[in-house]
Amino acid sequence: MTANLKLIALLFLVQIGYSQGQTLYGTSTGEVSFYSDTPLETIEAVNKKTGCIINATSRELAVQMKITDFDFPNKLMQEHFNENYLESEKYPTASFKGKIKEAVDLTVSGTYSVTAEGSLTIHGVTKPVSVKGTLVSSGSELKLDFKFQVRTEDYKIEVPSLVVTKIAETIDVTGKITLVKK
Question: Where is the Lipid/polyisoprenoid-binding YceI-like domain (predicted)?
């Protein structure tokens, strides 16, 4: 188990309280990407080291990633993202902690439309969010796909006036995460 997944698993288990009979799925190689498009510039990046754990019994889930693990096609853009916008030295991680609303048995094979409600923390700011997605269960594996939007001003991400026309106010965030039974 990687250090990122160990940390998220420990935090998750401490926060929700672990008891016998819980069915857990996890990964440290989930993929989360974001996309910003304006007439002047397209910005996109992907993080393939996202940790995620789902308690199928309680339907609680946690996602965590290091900000510096986002990979950009343009390395100067990546440097500006980490130093100027997300301030990754000061705020090294982003996370989501929540619960799947629908009363589905994730240990039973099937495809489920789900909504996770919880708290998203980016840039040191935590906000309540609702994220819609699709979860496909094979019983031993869960595949989670989701998409939502983040407004930069909601998370106190300051965009200098010089580049404000190059960065969208609302950023599209997508994820494709495959978790295995632990």
Answer: 4-180
The whole domain housing 37 covers 3-181
Domain count, the chain: 1
Find out whether 3 and 47 touch, Cβ atoms under 8 Å: no
DSSP string, 72-84: -SSHHHHHHIIII
Residue among 165, 161, 171 at smallest CA distance from 123: 171
How far, in Å, CA of 164 to CA of 101, rounded? Answer: 37
Mean pLDDT across 155-170: 80
What kind and span of H or E run contains 4?
helix 3-16
Residue type, 87: E
pLDDT at 58: 93
CB 50 within 8 A of CB 5: no
Quick one: 69 exposed, middle or buried, by C-beta within 10 A (0-12, 13-18, 19+)? middle
How far from 47 is each of 9, 31, 64, 77, CA to CA, in Å?
A: 19, 6, 11, 15
Q: Which of 12-16, 112-116, 151-155 has the lowest mean pLDDT?
A: 12-16
- End-to-end C-alpha distance for the chain, whole angstroms: 10
Q: Please give the backbone phi and psi of residue 169, each rounded to the nearest 5 degrees, phi first.
A: -70, -30
CATH number, domain of 108, equals 2.40.128.110
Strands (E), 101-156: 110-122, 125-137, 141-151
